[in-house]
């Protein structure tokens, strides 16, 4: 296993509500990162085909067209989009983590907020469905199950991932810690609206998205003594225009999205502190030091040295020497849940 490797976090916008075009963009970014010697390439929450941020801006009664488009453009785990991404991971020799809105073949509109970790051989190592959709996400996605609470054993170490608000769930985080996780991926939407500013005095303060996400990720890194990769989405003008065009009040949608607090893409070390990163100009190849990406699209790179995950375990190994296994006992059910179990009818020969 290589103790040092290069990670790439893609702070990118979906081609909103187009699975095919967003998959093409995903593949182009994997190729770009691989060209720059990245070993691990990470994409944001629900990158394909979009994150349903519209549900935070307007009432459910106004979002039927969005739900229909989301159901149409969400992708199957065994569908052509995933096969194309898996093929690219194999061709480039990279480990890929990608967020998708997953649809299933037993329903016309059941969807899950999923994250997939793919090996450098193109195999799916972890297929995780978000345990509980957060806040307005419940209008789009169903609750997942514990099947995906696993770490991926890769040639670049043990990699785990949780989606957005799951990083607030200490038991979900501990489930990954207890499997020796060395690199923790946390994925996030581009923005997180809690209010639509109107300019009136007395309005609620905006949610501090960057601080909230960094706090959760840093806590996990410190407790687990692992590296953290925060990978958030981006909303470009084309995405804003598509979402605005599907509403009866495009100006209100556009205003709500542009005023919402952005999320950040960055790296953390095993103490929870910021890990220096850099960007690489795709045209000139020029490298520029950069601590994070927030308002601009791009790929942030950082070198991770897994040997740095060891020292902190002297102080707090919360799944080993700093644990009281005689006091605490966590049971995790990793059964993949299905809507029904059909018994096979036995034939007697009569």
UniProtKB/TrEMBL annotation:
TM region positions: none
InterPro entries in the cross-refs: C-N_Hydrolase (IPR003010), C-N_Hydrolase_sf (IPR036526), Nitrilases_CHs (IPR044149)
Keyword field contains Hydrolase: yes
Keyword match Electron transport: no
PROSITE patterns registered for this protein in UniProt: CN_HYDROLASE
Lineage: Eukaryota, Fungi, Dikarya, Ascomycota, Pezizomycotina
Keyword annotations of the record: Hydrolase
Protein name as annotated: Carbon-nitrogen hydrolase
Pfam family, one: CN_hydrolase
Cross-referenced SUPFAM superfamilies: Carbon-nitrogen hydrolase (SSF56317)
Organism: Hyaloscypha bicolor E
Segments forming domain CN hydrolase: 5-306
Family per similarity comment: Belongs to the carbon-nitrogen hydrolase superfamily. Nitrilase family.
């Amino acid at each position: 296993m290589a103790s040092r490797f290069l990670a790439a976090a893609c702070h990118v916008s979906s081609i909103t509500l187009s699975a095919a075009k967003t998959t093409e963009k995903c593949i182009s970014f994997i190729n770009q990162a691989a060209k720059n010697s990245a070993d691990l390439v990470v994409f944001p929450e629900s990158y394909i085909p979009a994150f349903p941020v519209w549900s935070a801006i307007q009432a459910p009664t106004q979002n039927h067209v969005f739900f229909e488009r989301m159901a149409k453009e969400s992708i199957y785990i065994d569908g052509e989009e995933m096969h194309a991404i898996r093929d690219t991971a194999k061709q480039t020799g990279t480990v890929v983590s990608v967020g998708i809105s997953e649809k299933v073949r037993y329903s016309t509109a059941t969807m899950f907020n999923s994250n997939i970790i793919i090996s450098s051989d193109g195999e799916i190592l972890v297929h995780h469905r978000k345990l509980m959709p957060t806040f307005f996400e419940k209008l789009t996605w169903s609750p997942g199950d514990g099947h995906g609470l696993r770490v991926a054993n890769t040639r670049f170490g043990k990699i785990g991932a949780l989606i957005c608000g799951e990083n607030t769930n200490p038991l979900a985080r501990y489930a990954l810690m207890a499997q020796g996780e060395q690199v923790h991926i946390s994925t996030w939407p581009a923005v997180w609206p809690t209010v639509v500013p109107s300019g009136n005095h007395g309005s609620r303060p905006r949610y501090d998205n960057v601080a909230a996400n960094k706090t959760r990720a840093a806590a996990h890194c410190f407790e687990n003594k692992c590296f953290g990769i925060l990978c958030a989405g981006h909303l470009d003008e084309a995405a804003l225009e598509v979402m605005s065009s599907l509403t009866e009040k495009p100006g209100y949608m556009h205003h709500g999205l542009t005023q919402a607090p952005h999320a950040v893409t960055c790296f953390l070390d095993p103490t929870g502190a910021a890990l220096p990163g850099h960007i690489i100009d795709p045209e000139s190849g020029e490298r520029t030091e950069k601590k994070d990406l927030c308002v601009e699209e791009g790929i942030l790179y950082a070198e991770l040295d897994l040997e740095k995950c060891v020292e902190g375990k002297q102080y707090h190994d919360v799944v080993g020497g700093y644990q009281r296994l005689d006091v605490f006992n966590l049971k995790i059910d990793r059964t993949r849940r299905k809507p029904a179990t059909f018994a096979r009818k036995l034939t007697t020969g009569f």
